[in-house]
Design goal:
About 40% of the residues lie in helices and about 20% in strands. The protein is built from five helices and five strands. Bound molecules: zinc ion (ZN). This is SWIM-type domain-containing protein.
Length: about 110
């Protein structure tokens, strides 16, 4: 089923990220989850479940290929980071770390400021 929607190379890349324990799931004290994926050159923030019913895109990743392949050219449904988060979450293969509310806010602030 996965193969019909996603290229083999993306599935292999996602499995590779999970193997390297590259999916980090931050857990706040109030039960919110925040996902980060270590790419080869940078760390990306992934939102696997956007609650936006009006768009075709149900997930979001801060990597450049998500912007190009998913949002602009619409060639792919997701990038390897989103896929890695979905699979790692389902298989309980995320690296789970607690995070303070203030630290989470700092992370978000870091993404919106220039
Ligand atoms: Zn990505």
């Amino acid at each position: 089923m996965l193969r019909a929607l996603l290229p083999d190379t993306m599935i292999i890349a996602a499995l590779d990220i999970i193997d390297r324990e590259g999916v980090v799931k931050y857990k706040t004290s109030w039960g919110r989850h925040h996902y980060e994926v270590m790419g080869t050159t940078s760390t990306y923030t992934v939102f696997p479940h956007l609650d936006v019913a009006s768009t075709a895109v149900s997930s979001y990743c801060t990597c450049p290929s998500f912007a190009f392949a998913v949002l602009i050219s619409e060639n792919h449904l997701m990038c390897k980071h989103v896929l890695a988060v979905c699979l790692a979450d389902r298989w309980s293969r995320c690296v789970v770390r607690p995070i303070e509310d203030d630290d989470l806010l700092l992370k978000f602030a870091g993404h919106v400021s220039p």
